[in-house]
Amino acid sequence: MSYNDLFVEALRQFDNGDFGSAENNLRQILEASPDNSDVLNMLGLIAQNKGYHDEACSYFSAAIRNGKENAGYYYNLAFSQKLQQKYTEALQNYAKVLKLAPEVKETYDEIANIHEILGNLETAREYWDKVLSIKPDYIEAIINRANSYRIDNPEKAKKQLTYLAQQYPDNALVWYDLSWLSYNNREYNQAIEYIEKAYSISSNYDSILTLKGLIYEAWHQTEKAKSAFIKAEFLNDNNTQAKFHLANILSQENNFNEAEIRYRKLAEIIPNEFALHNNYAEMMYRQKRLSEALEEYRKAVIINPKSAEVCNNIGLILKDMGEYEEALGLFFNALQLDSTQTAISLNITECIILLSRQDEDKALEIANNWVKSYPDSIYAQHLRAIMKGDNFVDNKVYNEKLFDNFADNYELVMQNLEYSTPLAIRRIIGDFQGRIVDFGCGSGLIGKAVKTISNYIIGVDISSQMLKQAATKNVYNELIKSDICDFLKSRKDFDLIIAADVLVYFGDLEEFIKLCNGKKVIFSVETDNNIPQYQIQKNGRFKHNPNYIKNLLQSNNYNSVRLHEQVLRYENHIPVNGIIFEAF
């Protein structure tokens, strides 16, 4: 086969999407004619379609160097540069296209699109006006110009696009742009209606399917979102947006192998994308692949060194590796970048507590420095009190933030700690008939354990995020956000009080037991016979002397008090002993 025949065959294969065969034929020609600009340009187009824009730009530049000035080569080079966000270089090369071929209408549209991205709206509209003066019926430019008003005048954009949709009802682009407007306004019903119209006109455009997926994802219809992203990916394996969102969904579903295939592919296409490395690292962290996650997070922090999230996440890995001082350095850096994030302060608290088991003096020094640097931080104050063994009085704000942050992983953590209190309480009370208030209901483990058709359960918790988790159990008749003592002051319409793993966050229990006002109570505490009444521990939880609690109960007319000794959970494989009190 002659080289001319090989080139013609390569063009046919390219048009059919058979890029591998086309590339093989082109490389055969290139071996004999390494300076063939048409071959270099075609290889650039193949790389461009694969999403390898660095490689594509190299081929296009070589084609330009080796041949006469060709508008098509410059156009292709500019297009890849635009996709690389190299907007200055792209504009320069599009200008060369206009000089060589001013009649190419797409060039004006591309230049306008770049100026829109850069925020130069008036310049963008000038270029759309130029192309429309050449070709007044160039519908893509008409629609793009109208859509540009979404940035500075959304109502005008909506009005013009709606008019264009009436004028050109069979144009997918206008419905697509209307869908984006609705999506950005969180009008998901309208957005779906518009994108379905676009899809009915042009079902083979991956960008339409991608937007469809984004709408369903925002609408929390994950299966429909996943289906749309999969179809978009099938149409264009280099659709980075569809691939990224699909990878995230698969990761959330613990389909790690499929998610990783996409993250790795994305790393080839968009190696400098912060969110990619951050999400990929987060997935590996969840798989306990700590070293790999650490490496990926470090790639993310190179891209965005001002990310508090990444500093915090690297700190978490170092904490899990036992590198507590280095982890604290990352956590404090994250706190400096964003002092509003509760999770960072709670991670500092936990890490200092862990460090104290190795070096108590060092941990106390860091705790004191934290208070000096952030004197208004409830977390710093709370930690220093713990470190000094002081009984910290006002726990409400701290506990609320602690459990809001803890809600998503609460049940997994408690499972790992072999938390046995819910089942123990169920054994003690049996099939209780009547109205129950479950204090500190958390994610609903007690409610799930004690619920029968014959009882009515009120869940009370200080954490709104915990209450959301409890609602998913569908066992509570009421869920109320409240401090337990505040609730007891306002309501008495119940027969039994349960407080499992709650009173460990309170020292003085006198007010609580007094407010129980003769109701049957059952609650768990961690105990120590060698302390006067109660003592805070370095983990922030209180231990109580059982005699202190018995005396309180008896002084408040609880004449029948039963003590059930119990291993409440395990910490570092060591049993945490306590007592479940049952009082009438």
Structure description:
The chain is of the alpha/beta class. Helix content is 64%, strand content 10%. The protein has 32 helices and nine strands. Helix 29 links the parallel strand 2 (455-461) and strand 3. Helix 1 (3-15) runs antiparallel to helix 2. The N and C termini lie far apart (98 Å).
List keywords for this structure.
584 residues, alpha/beta, 9 strands, 10% strand
Radius of gyration: 32 Å
Number of helices: 32
Low-confidence stretches: none
Dominant shape: elongated
The fraction of residues assigned to DSSP E strands is 5-15%
The amount of helix comes to 55-70%
The whole-number mean of residue pLDDT values reads 90
Tell me the span between the first and last alpha carbons.
98 Å
Number of strands: 9
Content-based structural category = alpha/beta
Largest sheet: 9 strands, mixed
